[in-house]
Amino acid sequence: MFQIPFEKLKNARRVGIQLPDGLKRYAFEIANEIERRGFEVLISGETSYGACDIDTTILEEVDCLLHFAHTPILSVERVVYVPYFIDYNPRIEIDVPERKIALISTAQYVHRLKDVAEWLRGRGYEVEIGRGSGRIQYPGQVLGCNYSVLRDSKADAVVFIGDGLFHAIGAAIRTKKRVYAFNPLSRTMQEVDVKNFVKKRYFIVSKCVGKNKVGIIVSSKPGQRRMELARRLKEAGEERGVKAHIIYLNNVRAEELFNLSYDFYVNTACPRISYDDSERFEKPVITPQEFEFLIGKRDDIGFDEMSE
User: Fold this and answer.
1) pTM of the model
2) Domains defined along the chain, listed by start
3) How far is residue 23's CA from residue 249's CA, in Å, rounded to a whole number?
4) Cα separation of 138 and 136, whole Å?
5) Predicted pLDDT of residue 169
6) Helix axes 195-206, 166-175, angle to 10 degrees
7) CA–CA separation, 152 vs 50, rounded Å?
């Protein structure tokens, strides 16, 4: 399951572990294994939505933090990333009209993309696996905030290998190409339709028209802290008559904003907060690109990418 890099813990006595919610059920077993090696263990109960979501407060209590299930995007002293790869059969069965395809995946499934590509090439497809920049560690890997592996793609269509549709939708909006999502666990595939997603985003932005009290959200999480962007958005909004204040917090949740009196919010933290969690908030929560569209600085709402 996890290959804990004990060789990187040589100078540590107290070790912290941080797991995403879906894997916290393994905390007991992981802690036991580390304790058997003679370490004192402290388990983080904080969220872990991605490699950018590091519990920096626990570092005050431990010598080293093991951050599980994500690939490195930050260089934080005393934080060790422990990847989590899910094995699957690379012989995926797809039947799409496009013969030139680009393969993409998330950190949990990206390790077998080369095998998938070899299988598909044997069935007559031209397959490319792009190399990304910035936060990207592996060929073909995408993050919810980075699709740079597709930047120079010559493919006619994209095949996403993974669970869920969030990354596939992002790829479709980013590339304007046809995108297929293949789930390697259920062995099912579907074509991604972004029309309803885009309509929903324009509808949310429309609810902000005529409003002039905006809260610009900045997260204190190391990989999400976009303070300079927030300041630029505040200045751009105020130039157009929108009064803006910057709101600084760690976890961006509906209950944290409930008692504030702003008309709507611009989220500069993880894009998934705007896209996946929008219905949890009492007031509209839009992305930086959507705010720029709202105030007339761009022609479309785009898709929020935190780094290229």
Assistant:
1) 0.85
2) 6-82 (3.40.50.11840), 100-193 (3.40.50.11850), 196-294 (3.40.50.11860)
3) 25
4) 6
5) 93
6) 80
7) 26
How far is it, in rounded angstroms, from Cα 189 to Cα 182?
4
Burial of 63 (0-12, 13-18, 19+ CB in 10 A): middle
Q: Encoding tokens for residue 79?
A: 């934080």
**Alpha carbons 193 and 230: distance in angstroms, whole number:** 31
pLDDT for 237-269, tens place per residue? 999 999 999 999 988 999 999 999 999 999 999
Confidence of residue 160 (pLDDT cuts 50, 70, 90): very high
CA atoms within 13 A on the CB side of 221: 22
Q: Mean pLDDT check: name the lowest of 107-111, 143-147, 200-204, 252-256.
A: 143-147
> What amino acid is encoded at 36 in this protein?
R
Q: Which of 14, 16, 6 is nearest to 40 (CA)?
A: 14
Looking at residue 308, its pLDDT comes to 41
Q: Which of 159, 50, 155 is nearest to 103 (CA)?
A: 159
